[in-house]
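HUMAN: Mind making up another protein with tokenized structure?

ASSISTANT:
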Amino acid sequence: MELALGENKTHRVSAQKLLETLPNIHLSAQEGLTSSKQEIRVTAIEWLARLNNPDSLPALNALLKKEKREVVRAALLTAVRTIR
């Protein structure tokens, strides 16, 4: 999971694709939404958008209500639109 959400961009997508075969992987991806690092939150948001699981919408909307950084908010809005 560390590679899938981590700062190492080289292995991130490969790790995400491998993990996507697991059931309920969206729950693990949602853990990245609580990171103190903006880049990890954005990575988790983008991954959740690609997973396109409506069960992630409550977590994304909750973060949208409290997130202050514009880059993260933009990613959240895009993800919510993608999943709906």
